[in-house]
Amino acid sequence: MMMDGPPTPTMKTRLCNKYKTADGCKWGDKCHFAHGERELGKPMLMDSSTHFPMGPGPTGHFAPPPMVNPGMATPASFGASATAKISVDASLAGRIIGRGGVNTKQISRVTGAKLAIRDHESDTKLKNIELEGTFDQIKNASAMVGELIVNISGSAPPPAKNPAGGPHRGGSGSNFKTKMCENFAKGSCTFGDRCHFAHGENELRKPAAA
């Protein structure tokens, strides 16, 4: 049984069962069914007062609503910046930054990540190292910051506090150059001769006995 109400197709594909009755079709030219075989396959016409879920276009012809390109819906979801925080002892912040910001500038230049040091949210004894960039940039910057912290933390006290003048002259600890420097292999070590990791097999030392 055919319906005399307007369905939602875009073409007139069936004959209207009310058109040739005594009462006639109340929809007239706006009927979604064909008023004779000559209208079969004809696009439906409707005026601007007719409301449909998908809405008529500017010409009065039924048209679907504009679709949002799913690839452009969330452009920030791909290649977007991410952030990370590393909490460090506040006393190390100055040396992490380096004189004139030399260390942080070097890390930013090598990795492409943005680096800033800010106050910790709740602990005045800590500072936050904030990194911003892609995931790979943050990963590389975190590795360089980690090596920087190890080098700073591993520094021995000044010689004046070591009256015995032991064998660890120059601030080298028991783990001095016992591991290879990962950043040296990448050409991104910022410490040069001051690095506490070995720059090549010739600098590699065996761990000191306990």
TrEMBL record:
Zinc finger residue extent: C3H1-type: 10-38, 175-202
According to its UniProt entry, the protein's GO biological process terms are:
regulation of gene expression; regulation of RNA metabolic process
**Per UniProt, which keywords does this protein have?**
DNA-binding, Metal-binding, Repeat, RNA-binding, Zinc, Zinc-finger
SMART domains hit by this protein: KH, ZnF_C3H1
Q: Which residues are in the C3H1-type domain?
A: 10-38, 175-202
Q: Which residues form the signal peptide?
A: none
GO-annotated molecular function:
DNA binding; mRNA binding; zinc ion binding
Record-linked CDD domains: KH-I_AtC3H36_like
Q: Which residues form a coiled coil?
A: none
Name of this chain's protein: C3H1-type domain-containing protein
